[in-house]
Amino acid sequence: MSTTTGEILFTRTDAALGTFAIRPLDPFADAELLHGWVTHPKASFWMMQDASLPDVEREYMRIAAHEHHQAFIGLHEGRPAFLMESYDPAELELVGLYDAQPGDVGMHFLVAPSDQPLSGFTRAVITTVMAALFADPQTKRVVVEPDVRNTAVHTLNAVVGFAPEREIRKPEKEALLSFCTRAQFEAATGITQEVSI
Questions:
Q1: Tell me, what's the pLDDT at 2?
Q2: Which of 67, 89, 107, 136 has an alpha carbon within 20 to 30 A of 180's alpha carbon?
Q3: Backbone phi, then psi, for 60, in 5-degree steps?
Q4: Which of the four pLDDT bands, split at 50, 70 and 90, describes residue 115?
Q5: In terms of DSSP H, where are the helices of 66-150?
Q6: CB 71 within 8 A of CB 64
Q7: 79-87 and 104-111 as β-strands: parallel, antiparallel, unpaired?
Q8: CA 93/CA 70 separation, integer angstroms
Q9: pTM over 0.90
């Protein structure tokens, strides 16, 4: 799929916080922005705390070139506000760690640091990320593997319908393997949609 950074792939309006959108990530144009996000103390679970700007460029160039991994910039009212990644868990991250099913999509997200946090913002972000993933009719289930110590994200995941399966050992962390089907997401959030990315 050929895209430009100006192309909006998905939009969602949150009743309280306004418009959220998702666009493709440009490894070069977005590198400086991303560097500030992934090296921020609040992004410790992203595991890029000591990354240099070229490190960030290289990582997102690698993702852009990967057949089974995608990265996106999330916007809030038109301004960059979060990072979203999707991947095929049958091909990377979770290979051999669980029985992948057709329609499984892996997901990571990171909310940009802010000096003026908005109440409910992170919940609105993960809801947008999940709605974007399920906008693709081929997505049957979203799979996540956050660090077992990241209790804040476990709570957020539960809010949008994730159910923990079990702890797994990855090379870089102990992770809590969790799943969310389309039905679980719709039941947790009341969001249904027919559009596709």
A1: 38
A2: 67
A3: -80, -20
A4: confident
A5: 121-134
A6: yes
A7: antiparallel
A8: 13
A9: yes
Tokens (6 digits) for 44: 């410790």
The rounded distance, in Å, linking the Cα atoms of 45 and 188 is 25
The pLDDT value recorded for residue 134 is 96
Question: What are the structure tokens assigned to 11, written together?
Answer: 């939009």
For residue 153, the 8-state DSSP code is H
Pairing label, strands 104-111, 18-24:
unpaired
| 147-to-29, 121, 144 alpha-carbon distances in Å | 29, 21, 10
Helix (H) or strand (E) segment spanning residue 157:
helix 151-159
**Rounded Cα gap, residues 46 and 39, in angstroms:** 8
CA–CA dist 58, 96 (Å, integer): 26
> Which position has the token pair 């027919």?
194
Please give the helix or strand (H or E) that residue 158 lies within, else none.
Answer: helix 151-159
Instruction: Dig out the tokens for 31 from the structure.
Output: 């590198």
Give residue 52's identity as a one-letter amino acid code.
S
Name 142's Cβ contacts closer than 8 Å, sequence gap at least 6.
104, 105, 106, 107, 130, 133, 134, 162, 179, 180, 185
